[in-house]
Amino acid sequence: MKRIVPVLLTSVLLAGCADEPKQPVEPQPKPAKKTKPPQPDRSSAAERADKQLQEMISKMSTAEKVDQLLYIGVTGTALTQTDRQLLQDHALGGVLLLGGNITSTDQLKTFTAAISEAQTADEKAFLGFDEEGGRVSRVPDAKLKLSPSLSFGHKNDSGLMKEIGRTLGSISRFYGFNMDFAPVLDVNSNPANPIIGDRALSADAEQVARLGIPLMQGMKEEDIVPVVKHFPGHGDTTVDSHVGLPRVDASKAELEQTELVPFKRAIQNGAEMVMVAHILFPALDQNRPSSLSKPVMTGLLRDELKFDGVIITDDLVMGAITERYGLAQAASLALENGADMAMFSSPGGYASVHKEIMARIKQGKLSAADLDQKVGRVLRLKQTYDLSQTKRVDKYEQLIKQVKAVESDMRR
Of all helices (H) and strands (E), which one includes residue 231? Predict the structure, then answer.
């Protein structure tokens, strides 16, 4: 916009002849007050988008809102008619694929495409999997598998970690996913840990933070939603939460010095989604595991660490939960106590879980305002990323070169 510059005029007074009477001097008008240019519209694009989002939520039924909070598993290695109908009839929050859903590259790409096509264009679900590299990898092609996180952590190169994040993002897109349940921000602080080990970047909390953040950012650059895990920290456990409920007896001060360091740093650097583990932390909550705990999810993560993104549970179909709670009960408790999304891989679990949550909303255990906030967080994150299959996808040969390049950099 061109700026208007006022021109200052100088008046020249002509003196009359000595024998002529002096003409009275006309009083000069006062200069006009400068008027402020029109102020730009104070409502930013983000504010307008948020207003539109709130209008969208206000038009949704309670049942539709609950759908957005559910992250479900599906049956088998191809989309069944039952699952297809479920995806067509309900705008779900997310769909999860595990190792049992995957057999080959062509099969997986066909499966993810079918899941995407079953949904309407403007109501896409998150489509996620666990691709960390190393032991936890769903990639069916060995040429596209990365080494364990600890191997890259030994290199201690943040630039390399960002490139690994981009590589994970590219691989995820290649197979049709828009979300990866990574990076692992657990600190490998207990050598006897049966579940984390080399999945962690380091045994040093500061190094996990320093390397985990660029890994997260690299994934985001490829338009893949990263999910940092397993809050508040799974590194100091001696029980596999897939089998039973781990217990960590560290004090809160000890947790703040180790386990919480990477998560706090990631939140400060733009983490948008946090997965909460199934672990009992008596210093935080003596009764419930972290994934069902209000002191952990609302008190610590939301209020103390100021996280305003999406909180998702780890898979509720794990021994740590199923030994003590029914699936519908656990999903309801998770949402009531701070989670925004309840994840469960059990095919066919949707109906009972949805019904239970609806009943508890009617009982006032989950308020309308709280429900709207959760839905808002989920939809806001969905709008931030391209969840469709239209994102650029690297060619297979290019991905192989990318994987070889980061593996080579690690070994130098």
Answer: strand 228-231
Compute the chain's Rg from CA coordinates: 28
**CA angle, residues 254, 259, 260, in degrees to nearest 5:** 95
Q: Return the DSSP state at 290.
A: G
Residue with tokens 């590589």: 167
Q: CATH no. for residue 339?
A: 3.20.20.300
From residue 151, how far is each of 87, 136, 155, 161, 382 by CA, in Å? 39, 14, 7, 11, 32
Give the integer Cα–Cα distance in Å for 305 and 302.
Answer: 6
pTM for the full model?
A: 0.88
Q: Which residue has the higher pLDDT, 21 or 129?
A: 129
Q: Which domain holds residue 83?
A: 62-411
pLDDT band at 105 (very low <50, low <70, confident <90, very high): very high
Span 106-122, pLDDT tens digits? 999 999 999 999 998 78
For residues 184 and 135, the answer to whether their CB atoms sit within 8 Å is no
The rounded distance, in Å, linking the Cα atoms of 359 and 408 is 55
- Residue 395 token pair: 């060619």
State the Cα–Cα distance between residues 138 and 146, nearest whole angstrom. Answer: 11
Sheet strands side by side (includes 273-276) = 228-231, 273-276, 310-313
CA dihedral 64, 69, 71, 75 (to 10 degrees): -30
Separation between Cα atoms, residue 20 and residue 228, nearest integer Å = 92
**Can you tell me the distance from the alpha carbon of 299 to that of 328, in angstroms, rounded to the nearest whole number?**
23
pLDDT digits (tens, 9 = 90+) for 223-265: 999 999 999 999 888 777 887 888 999 999 999 999 999 999 9
179 lies in some domain:
yes
Is residue 281 a part of any domain in this protein? Answer: yes
